[in-house]
Amino acid sequence: KLFFTDYGNAAKVERCDMDGMNRTWIVDSKIEQPTALALDLINKYVYWLDIYLESVEVVDYQGRRRQTITKGRQIRHLCCLAVFENYLYTVNSDNLSILRINRYNGTDVQALARLDNAKEIRVYQKRPQAAVRSHACEVDSHGMPGGCSHICLLSSSYKARTCRCRTGFILGSDGRSCK
User: Fold this and answer.
1) Is 95 among the domain residues?
2) Same domain assignment for residues 118 and 137
3) Regions of the chain with pLDDT less than 70
4) I need a surface site. Which of 35, 77, 112, 125 has the fewest CB within 10 A?
5) Does a structural domain hold residue 74?
C-alpha cells in the first residue's frame, strides 16, 4: 500500500495500492493541514502531523482507533515525522532541533541534537528486514520485473501487478511492453 496526505480542497490521509488503484480515504474529518506522515509497519498504524490543528495523531490502516498523541503550539514548527520503537522523531524547523516524542502518550519530549538545514528525518536500523514472500513483480527469466518492459507496480495483493511505462511511452496491447 501507498499512504499519503492531501490538504487541497478537502484535507485527508489516504491509501491506495501501489498502482494507484483502490484509493481510500482513511482520515477525512477533523483534519486541516496534514504535512508529514510516518508508518508503523509492524503494528499497522499511520501517524500524521497537522500543523494547522497543531497536533500529532494516529489511526490504524483502516482509519479506526484514532488517537491524539500530542497537541499544542510546539507542533506548529515541526516539519517531518519518523517512528521507531516507542518514539516519534521529528525536526523543529524553527530551531532545527531533532525531537523525540513518546508515541503512546506524547510525553517525554526530548531535544536530541541540532542540525543546520534539517528538513527530513529517517530511521535506519541494523536489524535485518523480514524476508519478503515471492510477489508478482519479481524479475522473470528475461530480467524483466513481473514481465513488464519498464515498470512493475504491485496491485491489490502481492500476487497481482500492473505494468506501466516511463514518460513518453505507451503500454502495448499485451499489457506488458512499452512502445
Assistant:
1) yes
2) no
3) 128-131
4) 125
5) yes
Residue 41 shares a structural domain with residue 119: yes
Show which of 101, 123, 145 is a domain's final residue. 123
**β partners of residue 2:** 16
**pLDDT at position 130:** 67
Of the candidates 117, 122, 153, the one whose C-alpha atom is nearest the C-alpha of residue 37 is 122
Residue 38: Cβ-neighbour burial (10 angstroms; 0-12, 13-18, 19+): buried
Domain that holds residue 10: 2-123
Q: Same domain for 21 and 108?
A: yes
Torsion sign, CA atoms 139, 145, 146, 149? negative
What is the spatial distance between Cα 5 and Cα 27, in angstroms, rounded to a whole number?
A: 9
Question: How many DSSP H helices and E strands does the chain contain?
Answer: 0, 13
| pTM score | 0.83
The string of DSSP codes covering 70-119 is EESGGGGGB---EEETTEEEEEETTTTEEEEEETTTS---EEEEE-TT--
Q: Which grid cell sits at 3?
A: 499512504
Residues 110, 152: one domain?
no
